């Protein structure tokens, strides 16, 4: 039997993780036929069927499930070998993949990333965005190394370290007549559409629970794909939003919005999430220490 190809194993594992050939091809920046050829060659080399196709989905066979465990170990060993050689070659410390929400990336992370780049140019840092649930799944699957998440975040294989607590506020449109009161409770927001960035985020759950505790169930709930879009929509008078205080200031609609604290007070708790079995190499330790400093960032 010829030696296994790491490229073929990477394609196979990506299909297992993402559930299909098309999604894997997009993730790997390959054509779907190229991914299919790699899997056919891998199955031919091993003399086993590794994946079963059901419609557009693909599922590992019993042999495929067992191979996936070995493939993760082999690919991790390959990455470790490459990282070690880069360190010998040019002082490269390693690559660290950070996961975070879009608001944290936009309003809190820039000074931390800038300091890492200036002080440790030999660390390759990449950032992916998603909800807390998505990040926990990606950390468990080793697609990212560490996440800045909004609590709660629970997974038996994930270690969570709280790092900060941030205020949530309401934004409402500037309208004719008297401005809104200095603090807003659920009753002050009743009867208006609620405008959110993501219906499935932990922040949305916090906001809906806070409203429900005050007897308010917003209808309709409108969603847009960025916080700036949310603020622009609220600025036109089409509803209100509850979001991070750091995200409420500035932007294209700043002159059309009132920002108000909430009563009772509502906060989101930020935490770092990582696999419990994550090897503590030097690059990871440096990035983790930098992220612990997010509590000191003032937007």
TrEMBL record:
Q: Which PROSITE patterns does the record match to this protein?
A: HTH_LYSR
Q: Which InterPro entries match?
A: HTH-type_LysR_regulators, LysR_HTH_N, LysR_subst-bd, WH-like_DNA-bd_sf, WH_DNA-bd_sf
Cite a single Pfam family from the UniProt record. LysR_substrate
Key word Transcription regulation present in the record?
yes
- Residues forming the HTH lysR-type domain are 4-61
- What is a single molecular function from GO for this protein? DNA binding
| Gene Ontology CC, one term | cytosol
UniProtKB keywords: DNA-binding, Transcription, Transcription regulation
User: Hey, which family's this protein in?
Assistant: Belongs to the LysR transcriptional regulatory family.
The molecule here is called LysR family transcriptional regulator
